[in-house]
C-alpha cells in the first residue's frame, strides 16, 4: 500500500530519492526521512479533497526544493508554512482531550494545536537535513500561566536557542521572548528538564503522547 501511495502522491523523481535515502544512506540521515515513508499509508484510506492534495504537494516542494538553502532560510520557510494552519483544540479536531498529531495528520486536517505545529516543524526540518541534536520540541509557560509548546533550534551547543512559535510570525532568540518560561524539552534522543543541561530518561513518562505518536508512525 505504501508503494501505491508514493506512486500517486509523489513525483517519480522524489519517490526514487526517498527510496535511495531510506535504503542506502547511513542511519542518521535516513532516519530524518523515515517518517515520509513510514507514514505514507496514513492517508491511503483517508478521503481528502483537492486542497489537501495541494498541501501535500506544497509540503513535498518545501522539503525537496530547499535542501540546499541556508539553515536560517529553512527555519523561516518551515515556520511560515505550518503557521498557515488553523489553530484548533484537540477536542474540536480529534474529539480527544489531548492528541499529538503526526505531520501527515496535521496536513490532512490543516489544523492543530501548539504541539501539532511544533511536531510538524520538527520532522520537516529533520527531512531538510537539520541535525536532530539541534532541534527540541519545548514545553513552556506563558505569561498568563498557560502551557504552550514551541520548537527550539540550537545553532550550536553554547548558543541560546531560536524559538519557532505558531503564535508569532518572526523567529527570535529565547532571550527576546520574556513571555515564555522554559519547563522541559525533548526530541527522539532524550528529555531535558528545567535546570539540567543533560538529557535524562523519561522515567515519569512525561512525554507519553510523544512516544505514542512515534509508535503510530512505526506501525503505519
Write a concise synopsis of the structure shown.
With 220 residues, the protein is α+β, with helices and mostly antiparallel strands. It has helices spanning 2-9, 12-24, 27-38, 50-64, 71-82, 90-94, 103-109, 114-127, 208-219; strands at 86-87, 111-112, 135-142, 147-153, 162-164, 172-173, 180-187, 190-193. The protein has a single domain, classed as C8orf32 fold (Roll), CATH 3.10.620.
The general outline is: globular
What top-tier CATH class fits best? Alpha Beta
Please provide the count of β strands: 8
In spatial order, strands of the major sheet run 6-5-4-3-7-8
Q: Give the topology string: H per helix, E per strand.
A: HHHHHEHHEHEEEEEEH
Give the helix proportion (percent range): 40-55%
Cα-to-Cα separation, first versus last residue: 10 Å
**What quaternary form is this?**
single chain
Q: Biggest β-sheet, characterized?
A: 6 strands, antiparallel
CATH topology: C8orf32 fold
Number of domains: 1
Query: What is the gyration radius calculated from CA atoms?
Result: 17 Å
- Give the name of the CATH architecture: Roll
Low-confidence stretches: 1-32
Proportion of residues in β-strands: 15-25%
Q: How confident overall, as mean pLDDT?
A: 81
> In terms of structural class, how would the helical and strand content be classed?
alpha+beta
Amino acid at each position: 500500500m505504501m508503494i501505491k501511495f508514493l506512486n500517486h502522491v509523489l513525483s517519480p523523481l522524489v519517490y526514487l530519492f526517498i527510496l535511495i535515502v531510506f535504503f542506502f544512506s547511513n542511519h542518521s540521515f535516513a532516519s530524518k526521512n523515515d517518517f515520509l515513508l513510514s507514514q505514507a499509508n496514513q492517508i491511503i484510506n483517508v478521503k481528502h479533497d483537492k486542497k489537501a492534495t495541494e498541501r501535500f504537494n506544497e509540503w513535498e516542494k518545501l522539503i525537496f526544493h530547499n535542501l540546499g538553502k541556508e539553515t536560517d532560510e529553512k527555519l523561516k520557510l518551515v515556520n511560515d508554512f505550518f503557521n498557515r494552519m488553523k489553530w484548533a483544540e484537540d477536542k474540536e479536531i480529534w474529539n480527544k482531550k489531548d492528541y499529538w498529531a503526526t505531520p501527515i495528520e496535521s496536513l490532512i486536517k490543516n489544523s492543530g494545536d501548539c504541539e501539532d505545529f511544533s511536531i510538524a516543524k520538527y520532522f520537516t526540518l529533520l527531512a531538510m537535513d537539520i541535525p536532530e541534536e539541534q532541534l527540541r520540541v519545548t514545553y513552556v509557560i506563558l505569561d498568563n500561566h498557560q502551557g504552550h509548546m514551541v520548537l527550539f533550534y540550537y545553532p550550536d551547543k553554547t548558543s541560546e536557542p531560536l524559538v519557532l512559535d505558531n503564535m508569532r510570525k518572526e523567529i527570535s532568540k529565547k532571550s527576546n521572548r520574556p513571555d515564555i518560561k522554559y519547563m522541559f524539552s525533548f526530541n527522539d534522543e532524550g528529555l531535558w528538564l528545567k535546570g539540567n543541561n543533560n538529557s535524562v530518561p523519561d522515567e515519569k513518562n512525561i512525554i507519553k503522547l510523544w512516544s505514542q505518536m512515534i509508535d503510530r508512525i512505526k506501525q503505519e
